[in-house]
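One-letter codes give the sequence; the fold follows as tokens. Both lines appear below.
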Amino acid sequence: MDPEAVRRTLEPTASAADISGSTPYDSFVISGVRLEAAEHGRVLCSFVVTPRIASPQGYLLSGVTATLADQLGSAVFFSSGVGTSGVSLEISVSYVDTAAVGIGACWVQNGS
């Protein structure tokens, strides 16, 4: 596992070209995500909901959540030592509650 490779894909300064297979929207969403820990097949990230990724009502946009699931899922591939992540064919997200602007969030992504 190369934690530095995982970190590079999640750095706030990463451009769309730095994030394998991504778009400018992906780098916009990933900006501000901090990699707290990475181990084989698992990443732990944190971020604070900001107005740029929130609805006019002040809640985290559901599309941002799906993008985070996709991009952080790719980070799990890198943490497992796989050099590329492929393409997401299906993403299923269960929403437990809303996340408001200013709220810190933690994201654990495990490979399965």
